[in-house]
Specification:
The protein is of the alpha/beta class. The chain has helices at 62-75, 107-115, 124-137, 157-160, 166-171, 181-195, 248-257, 261-270, 273-278, 283-291, 295-319, 329-334, 336-342, 355-359, 384-396; strands at 5-11, 16-22, 27-35, 42-48, 51-57, 87-92, 103-104, 143-147, 203-209, 213-219, 222-226, 324-328, 366-367, 376-379. Strands 5-4-3-2-1-6-8-7 form an 8-stranded mixed sheet, sandwiched between helices. It has a 6-stranded mixed sheet with strand order 11-10-9-12-14-13, with helices on both faces. Bound molecules: adenosine monophosphate. Its cofactor is Mg(2+); Mn(2+).
């Protein structure tokens, strides 16, 4: 029996992901996804080694979903209660100004995360539900909250602040918090290790391109800017989120189209980005539509790349030049065309992508810039679960 096992839980509004991580080896011992919570046709996929077991049927709420997932551990012969789980790590989206380090959860912490729901109404409430269910099922194990905003807590003031009335900003906690911090921190650490360099001596740009997408500029291991802001809506074009828009659009939609705040929220968070422009949010489907000749899909792709290049350009200037540019997450790790187009025509800045290296298939960290290129371009798989598990171990040791 090992005591390096950490259960990592990422609880969303209608789904819940979990992974049992061995923090000694970094391996996922088991993992699963509970989907369509609250629906009559819920399902759970649980993987343990090569074995995959599924459950189909109504999953009324998160508590039922997590209890079923725990039962699937039992059914696969690896009971969680007997596994010697040393901690449970919870991904929490918004830590506000209060939480900027992994934090052992007690009732007061749950209350505070709940209070921060005003800043993250789509994310913090389901995070809290996941925490409460897991605490009820594993009451004798420490539970640790790891915040998506934490890495960016110390952003320099010029990058952190919006140019609005300071009193209003202060009264309502309005600042740029940044998100995907666990991934940006993990990936930038892996980059330093991979290159055999000291992180404190490295200027890097990390491009986390998944269904949600964000960019960061990291100087000596510390972020100096990031593309997401008060909420995960700001910045790059995403699967269903618009990223940057003129805030004047919101007032215009309210005054001219009679849209209420919730309509606008839905429009920008769920019906924009690739989905809004092309009808699909998955990059593989977008690629297929482009191949089939869809001009809408091609336009969505062009806007996506244009925005990405704008951020890369900004961060190159902010850093005074980057030594490394890294692609990560679903799109960043898998789409050779996004990587090639994002960095096309930048040879003058010492940036190039080697076509052969870029299209080679690999699941591990790799260089895709040509040999001897002044700027190293990398693809590094992210692993937020491992980072959360390690943070949970570090704080409970
Ligand atoms: P993530 O949020 O990091 O899980 O990334 C999810 C997104 O990655 C999906 O919506 C897809 O658009 C994209 N993705 C996954 N696999 C591929 C692939 N082979 N090629 C292009 N995009 C992919």
């Amino acid at each position: 029996m090992t005591n390096s096992l950490v259960l990592v839980i990422n609880s969303g509004s209608s789904s819940l992901k979990y992974q049992l991580v061995d923090t000694d080896t970094g391996a996922a011992v088991a993992s699963g996804l509970v989907e369509r919570i609250g629906e009559s046709d819920g399902y759970i996929t649980h993987k343990c080694g090569d074995e995959v077991i599924e459950h189909r049927g109504p999953i009324p709420d998160h508590a039922a979903g997590l209890a079923l997932a725990f039962k699937m551990f039992d059914d696969s012969g690896h009971s969680l209660t007997g596994a010697g789980v040393r901690a449970v790590g919870h991904r929490v989206v918004h830590g506000g100004e209060v939480f900027y380090k992994p934090t052992v959860i007690d009732d007061a912490v749950v209350e505070e995360i709940s209070r921060l729901s005003t800043l993250a109404p789509l994310h913090n409430p389901p995070n809290v539900v996941g925490i409460e269910c897991a605490r009820a099922l594993l009451p004798h194990v420490p539970h640790v909250a790891v915040f998506d905003t934490a890495f960016f807590h110390g952003l320099p003031a010029a990058a952190r602040l919006y140019a609005i009335d300071v009193e209003v900003a202060r009264a309502h906690g309005i600042r740029r918090y940044g998100f995907h911090g666990t991934s940006h921190e993990y990936v930038s650490g892996v980059v330093a290790e991979f290159l055999g360099r000291d992180n404190s001596d490295l200027n890097q740009i990390v491009l986390h391109l998944g269904n949600g997408a964000s960019a960061s500029a990291i100087q000596g291991g510390k972020p100096i800017d990031t593309s997401m802001g008060l909420t995960p809506l700001e910045g790059l074009v995403m699967g269903t989120r618009s990223g940057d828009v003129d805030p004047g659009i919101l007032m215009h939609l309210n005054r001219s189209a009679g849209m209420k705040v919730d309509d606008i929220d839905t429009l920008l968070n769920r019906r924009s980005g690739l989905m809004g422009m092309s009808g699909v949010n998955d990059f593989r489907e977008l690629g297929q539509l482009i191949e089939d000749g869809s001009t809408a899909a091609k336009l969505a792709y062009d806007v996506y790349i244009h925005r990405l290049r704008r951020y890369i350009g900004a961060y190159l200037i902010e850093l005074g030049g980057a030594e490394v540019i890294t692609f990560t997450a679903g799109v960043g790790e898998n789409s050779a065309s996004v990587r090639a187009d994002a960095l096309a025509g930048l040879q003058k800045f010492g940036i190039a992508v080697d076509p052969g290296r870029n299209t080679a298939k690999s699941r591990t960290a790799r260089v895709i810039s040509p040999e001897g290129s002044p700027v190293t371009v990398l693809v590094v798989p992210t692993n937020e679960e491992l980072a959360i598990a390690r943070a949970a171990v570090a704080i409970t040791t």
